[in-house]
Amino acid sequence: MLSRARQPTADPFSLAAKKQRLHDSRSQGHQTLGHFGRPNFWRNWLLEKRMTNDSLTRDALPNRELIEERLVVWYFLAAIGYLFVSMLGGFLMAFQLIRHNPFNGIELLSPGRWRMIHTNAIAYGFLANAFLGNLHWIVPRLTLRSVMSRKLSYFIFAAWQIVVLATAGGLLLGEAQGLEWGETPVWIDPLAQVGLLLVAVNFMTPILKTKGPMYVTLWYFLAAFIWTFLTYAMGNFVPEYFVAGTSAGAVGGLFIHDLVGLFVTPLGWGSMYFFVPILLRKPIWSHGMSMVGFWGLAFFYPLQGIHHFLYTPIPMFLQYGAIVSTIAVEMVVLTVIVNFFGTLKGSSRALATNLPIRWFFTGMIFYAITCAQCALQTTLTFQALIHFTDWVVGHAHLVMFGVFGQWLLGVMTYLFPRLLKSDWASPKLCEWHYWLSAVGLFVMALDLTLAGLFQGWSWAALQPWDASIEVSQPFWIVRIWAGISMFSGQIVFCVNLWKTWQQSPLNKAVMSSAVVPA
Fold it and tell me: Is residue 196 part of a domain?
């Protein structure tokens, strides 16, 4: 049952819908104070601005004049493809751990190399392509301007796929750098850096032309363009050419976490703040809290990466600083979680009737779990137990697939019917996609969390290394079954997507144009 999410014709930006939301917001705002003891000025002001000055303009411009919808589809399809590649790499590593590697002795299919493809395909393949598709949908709708150059957009799409595929080829041929998430071959790094610059220019141009206050989504996007460019340069050039030893380790720690916090997080939060109000048909609960989250992310996230390197030769004042900034970031993430549930309040029925919002809800639950994990693992006492264990692996899966992956799959569930101009062919398959993905991820995260604790206790008891391997075997077997569930969910998604495309009027138009008259 998708109800609202399955109605491509329902336009939340229509003039009637805007006036109704403005009326509802004013009714609440005049009767109660805002969430910081002030009237809901910002919420009403932003709504009124978009419902008056921009209403006629937005309603007069169809999507095709603002958005290159075909490119959004291409990015989403590329993201799904890389997700499959990443999962296959994960399976190779998982089977190796239980001593059932099906390709034993084949160097190009060695689990060590495919483990790097597993992580890089998620970061630069799945997440980057999905977010680029999001940007091509969101930025024109918020700025009422198309990207700077559509030709440049197509060039970026092709160039980025070359970068990702060349990275995979370099990793298979043994050209990896010795840095987690920064294994990209040295000859790829300059190309990727130029690509990030082109992305920033293409999207920042329409954003910077926007007059008046910007919605918080655009704040996050602007920051992401700058932070991602700088983060990639820091992680892929500084340790390689400028520093060594513990200094390189510290920079590597910052890069590992900043790639998540300054690339994935601002794009994810910005997308969430755009789609959730549309899905629930009401304003975000607190615009002020969303800005607190933005500035908190900017000030505290860049400092916390070294918490991955506690008990190392890195100076202790840097380790303590990372711990403090991590605690601060947990408070920042709570602003996003609270804002989401505040917006959801009074609309809980949407969890049953609106599948895209359920994807966001599930991601928020996983976000809360990751916050609880961070609160534990950033302390020196707990870090001594779980460092180098599968706890960290489970935590990474929770964040990348459990939070941002769930959100992006929810966005795709919402947008594909609009992009293909057709309802989903099978709402039941949409449900199967959700449950196989969410339950599989939950089981995997729980399984790896427990595995990490048992591994840590084994090492703390000074048992032989082999003992920790044997105690991990049942957990590693469960992880494979959880991965099969997640993989099956994506197969179901692709089958449903293909059926939807088959019934799409766009497909029928393509087939009609392909018919050559006798």
Answer: yes
